[in-house]
């Protein structure tokens, strides 16, 4: 695998996001500028409420900033139509949540998840990436199992394998190890490293020091701003 470190995969400039509820306003992001390099893992850390999940939702194109610009793989996502954003998300971005159950469909086997993911990315379900990812994510002997037959760590690795098809320009993970014990955290971090080797920029919001230790870079958020990187 080639590494593509160095080139900018994702770029945010002066991003502002304010939540408005009736008369109250919460300034969740107050001018965030950040670049994510291809082929690297970034840990986003900071106190609860500092804006990590808000930023990740913007990067994943499931929400839009009020101000500022976000480019993913050179495409300005803020200017895209809704359909354009959906297409970009489907082809270039992977997203995974904290709870393994939220990332997977209970009635699909591991292999069927990857076949579905391949279809969503516009690949053939017979694409070699499906067996290759099963292998590289250590899931080959679990391929015919359903989520309730897997451990939490295995389920998160299925979610990463699903997100890794393509491969995408960006993988966004919100507290990916929040519900895992220490021994399984490592296997999830190994899976991130596999994905980064294909050139994907991985960004994970985390309170877990183990994730921050394995990241190429740690970005600290505070009060809706990048405090240190
Ligand atoms: N949908 C929403 N409506 C209104 N306010 C929100 C919404 N989502 C988040 N907020 C507020 O925006 C701020 C940033 O929240 P965010 O969820 O991004 O923080 P976080 O850093 O991910 O925190 P945690 O570490 O607890 O997950 C907080 O003050 C939060 O209360
Ligand atoms: Mg959060």
Strand order of the largest sheet: 6-7-8-3-9-10
Number of helices: 8
CATH fold-level topology: Rossmann fold
CATH architecture: 3-Layer(aba) Sandwich
What proportion of the residues form beta strands (DSSP E)? Answer: 25-35%
CATH class type:
Alpha Beta
Q: Any low-confidence stretches, pLDDT <50, length ≥5?
A: none
Domains, number: 1
Distance between the termini: 28 Å
Name the CATH homologous superfamily.
P-loop containing nucleotide triphosphate hydrolases
The helix/strand series, from N terminus to C terminus, equals EEEHEEHEHHHHEHEHEE
- Characterize the overall form: globular
- Distinct small-molecule ligands in the complex: adenosine-5'-triphosphate, magnesium ion
Global structural class:
alpha/beta
- pLDDT averaged residue by residue: 91
What's the multimeric state? single chain
């Amino acid at each position: 695998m080639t590494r593509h470190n160095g080139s900018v995969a994702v770029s945010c400039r002066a991003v502002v996001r304010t939540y408005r509820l009736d008369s109250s306003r919460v300034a969740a992001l107050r001018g965030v500028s950040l670049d994510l390099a291809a082929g690297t893992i970034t840990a986003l850390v900071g106190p609860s409420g500092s804006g990590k999940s808000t930023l990740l939702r913007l990067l994943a194109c499931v929400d839009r900033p009020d101000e500022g610009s976000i480019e993913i793989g050179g495409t300005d996502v803020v200017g895209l139509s809704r359909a354009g954003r959906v297409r970009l998300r489907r082809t270039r971005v992977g997203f995974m949540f904290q709870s393994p159950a939220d990332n997977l469909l209970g009635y699909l086997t591991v292999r069927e998840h990857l076949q579905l993911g391949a279809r969503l990315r516009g690949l053939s379900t017979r694409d070699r990436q499906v067996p290759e990812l099963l292998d590289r994510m250590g899931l080959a002997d679990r391929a015919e199992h359903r989520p309730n037959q897997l451990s939490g760590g295995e389920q998160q690795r299925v979610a990463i394998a699903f997100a890794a098809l393509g491969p995408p320009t960006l993988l966004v993970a919100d507290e990916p190890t929040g519900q895992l014990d220490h021994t399984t955290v490592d296997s999830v971090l190994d899976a991130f490293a596999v994905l980064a080797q294909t050139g994907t920029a991985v960004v994970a919001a985390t309170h877990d020091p183990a994730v921050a230790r394995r990241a190429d870079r740690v970005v600290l958020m505070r009060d809706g701003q990048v405090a240190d990187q």
